[in-house]
Amino acid sequence: MVRDKKVKKRNNKKNLLAIVYYYTKGFKRDFFIIRELAFTDFRLRYKNSFFGYLWSVATPLLMLVTLYIIFSRAINLNLPYYQLFLLLGIIIWNFFSEATTTGMNCFINKKGIIDTMKFPKHFIVIASCLSSTFSFLINLAIFFVFEILSGIRLSPLSFLLIVTLIELFLLLLGISFFLSVLYPRFKDVAQLWNILTMIGFWITPIIYKETQIPQKYLRYYMLNPMARIINEARDILIYHYFPNPKQLAITAVICLIIFITGILYFKKRENYIVEEV
Question: How many beta carbons lie within 10 A of that of residue 45, not counting itself?
């Protein structure tokens, strides 16, 4: 009996690894398809727009100016390099919000081709997240310009940001896998997600530090993976502080759990996409 349970548990682990491998191997094998889908999405997003790609830069900068005036002048949050602190939080949160919203709508926006496409459906979800990554990289470049103008030099520690960005991409990809197959079935998901992202903006340390949260609630507050990711990015890029390896590991585990959960739910529902869209 005990042996049967061990064998079953081992088989479940193998099946889980096989599923995760199937939904990620496309990055290497058919990356050119995902890349073209992502570039097409990015171009169409700003098609017939007078300012074009400039809107992807203007949005976080306008938010920065508004929030900086309110929270630096009116409320007087006395934080070192607060303008960079705020800008980086806005850029990362906008990326998360945009990528998950785009991922949620990816099959609705491509309902004309999902019947005839010759590639796996999950490529569309991955491509939608990558298309938002292009805007994010533009905004990140703008942040580096502001950082240099503020007198902060980039250090070798900045390369550690790659780890944080991988965690972030796994997180938003897992959520996008989940939302992309849930939304065609339940259209109210769009309104609900808009509300959740609006609430999430204020319960994530974007305009304030997590140290302002009462200590008794901080443990639960830091279960929010976006709070952890934004803090890691600030420590690395602004304050040149090496994040606690234990905390990095916890963030990675939380993001992996969400990523795998999203894949498993996507696998369960992907065969119904065509009829539900």
Answer: 18
